[in-house]
């Protein structure tokens, strides 16, 4: 799991599964998954199997702000132990290009440094 994503203890316990699922959800305009794009800020999983994700977008005008959170919630619910999920979209702190992972930079043709 990326160091810049805040996780509670329950989420840490399933972090590998979370990463695998996050890598399947794509920002359709940039054509990179939301994990490597750096859109996820926080993931919390409670005792009742509810997962709460805090995320952002690259731009306020992003065309997928309505659909992507719903897709993400549906994807998370396919993980054993997650029965429900909500996604909170925040604009602060603002997303920066430096949040893109090394893999993401290579995939987008940006210098990996």
UniProtKB/TrEMBL annotation:
Superkingdom field: Bacteria
Domain called MIP18 family-like: residue spans: 16-89
Organism per entry: Streptococcus criceti HS-6
Descriptive protein name: MIP18 family-like domain-containing protein
PANTHER family: FE-S PROTEIN MATURATION AUXILIARY FACTOR YITW
Pfam families listed in its UniProt record: FeS_assembly_P
């Amino acid at each position: 799991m990326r160091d810049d994503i805040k996780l509670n203890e329950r989420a840490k316990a399933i972090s590998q599964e979370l990463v695998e699922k996050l890598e399947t959800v794509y920002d359709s305009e940039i054509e990179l998954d939301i994990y490597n794009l750096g859109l996820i800020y926080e993931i919390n999983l409670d005792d009742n199997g509810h997962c709460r994700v805090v995320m952002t977008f690259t731009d306020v005008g992003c065309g997928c702000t309505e659909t992507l959170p719903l897709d993400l919630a549906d994807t998370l619910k396919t993980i054993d132990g997650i029965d429900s999920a909500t996604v909170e979209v925040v604009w602060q702190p603002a997303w920066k290009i430096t949040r893109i992972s090394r893999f993401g930079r290579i995939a987008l043709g940006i210098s990996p440094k």
